[in-house]
Amino acid sequence: MSKLRVGIIGAGGIASGVHIPNYKQQDERVEIVAIADVAYERAQEIAANHAIPHAFESYQKMFEHVELDAVSICIPNKFHVDATIAALEAGCHVLCEKPPAMNAEEAERMQHAAEESGKFLTYGFHYRHQPEVQTAKIFIANGELGDIYNARVQAIRRRGIPGWGVFTNKELQGGGPLIDIGVHMLDSALYLMGYPEPEVVLGKTHQQLGTKKGVGLLGEWDWENFTVEDMAIGMITFKNGASLTLEAAFAANVEENDKMQVSLMGNQGGADIFPLKIYQEKHDTLIDVTPVYLPEFNGHSEEIKHFVNCCINGIQPISTPEQGTVIQKIIDALYQSAATGKAINFE
C-alpha cells in the first residue's frame, strides 16, 4: 500500500523534537509531506533539516496545495480548535497535542467536526502509552484492584516554570500547570478508572511564586508577564461514587524537583503508577507487588506508532474526542470553581 501522507502544523519544539522524528521512525509506512507555521522561516528550516518536501506559512495553504491523509497539530492551545476543524474538513485524521483546546465549548466543536468528517481525532496524551500505564490497565482489567473508588493525581515541580514558549501566557494557553502538566496525570488516572462521569468539582488556584524573580530549573521565565496560576488544587467526585484529588504546580516549595504520579485505591488493591507498584492484602498478609520487568518503550514513540496504525488500519485510537471533551469540562470546572469560590455541579 502507499505510505500515509502526513502534514505537521507548527514548527516548534514538540514538532521537531517529538512528532517529526517519531514519524520518521515509521518511514516504511509514513511520508512527512509538508510543514506549516506562521513563522515561515522556521518552517523552512525544519523542512530542510528533515527532508520535508514542502513548507507553508499557513495550514490553509498547506491543505490547498498538498494532499494529506493525516496531520499532527503542534501549536499553542488557542489555535487548536480552528486548525483541527480545518484539518478534519480537509479529509485528514488528526493527532492534536494536549490539552484538547482552551475550553469545553471548543472541545465539543472539535468532537462534532470529527463525527461529521468520519475521520479520527485523537489527543497527545502520551502518558497513556507508557509501559507502566499499559501494564496497570491490564492488571485493572483482570480485577487486581477491584472497584477503584479513589485516585490521587500529582504533577508538581519545585521550580519548573518553562523558560520558553507561551506556557505562562493565559491568553494563548488557557491556564498554567493544571492545563499543561496536570492534564497528563489527570487523563492517565481517568483512563485507568474507565473515564467516569464527573459529578461535582471543587478547585483552588494560587499565584505565589511565578510573578517573582527566582531560581528557574527550566530556564528563566518572564516573571513580569506571568499570567497563569503557578499551582492548582482540585477535588472531583464522580457519578459512580469514586473521587479524585489533584495537585499541579509549576513552582512549589517541596522536596522533589519533579513529581508526576497517579495513585489508585480499589477495594481489592491499590497502585502507584510511576514507577508501578501494587498494594494488596492476600492470605492474611499485606503485600507489595513490584514488576521486575516492564516492556521498554517511549510514550511519545508509541503514541505516534499507535496513531499511524489506527490511520492505516481504520482502528479507533485509545484517546477519543469524547474523552477530550470530558477532561476539558473538568478543567473548565476547576478553573471556574477557583474563580468563584464555589463547587461546580454537573448535570
Shape: globular
Number of domains: 2
Write the CATH architecture name of the largest domain. Answer: 2-Layer Sandwich
CATH classification class of the largest domain: Alpha Beta
Average pLDDT works out at 97
Can you give the helix content as a percent range?
A: 25-40%
Could you give the order of the helices and strands? EHEHEHEHEHEHEHHEEEEEEEHHE
Report on the biggest sheet. 9 strands, mixed
CATH superfamily of the largest domain: Dihydrodipicolinate Reductase, domain 2
Number of strands: 15
Class computed from helices, strands and strand pairing: alpha/beta
Distance between the termini: 47 Å
- Compute the number of helices: 10
The proportion of strand residues reads 15-25%
What does this structure look like?
- This protein is α/β, with parallel strands linked by helices and 347 residues long.
- It has helices at residues 13-24, 40-49, 59-65, 80-89, 104-117, 131-141, 170-173, 177-193, 299-313, 321-340, and strands at residues 4-9, 30-36, 54-56, 70-73, 93-96, 121-123, 148-157, 198-206, 231-238, 243-249, 258-266, 270-272, 277-282, 285-289, 344-345.
- The protein has a nine-stranded mixed β-sheet with strand order 14-13-12-11-7-10-9-8-15. The protein has a six-stranded parallel β-sheet with strand order 3-2-1-4-5-6, with helices on both faces.
- The N and C termini lie far apart (47 Å).
- The relative contact order is 0.16.
Summarize the entry for a quick read.
The chain has 347 residues and is an alpha/beta fold.
Main features:
347 residues; alpha/beta; Rossmann fold; Dihydrodipicolinate Reductase, domain 2; 10 helices; globular
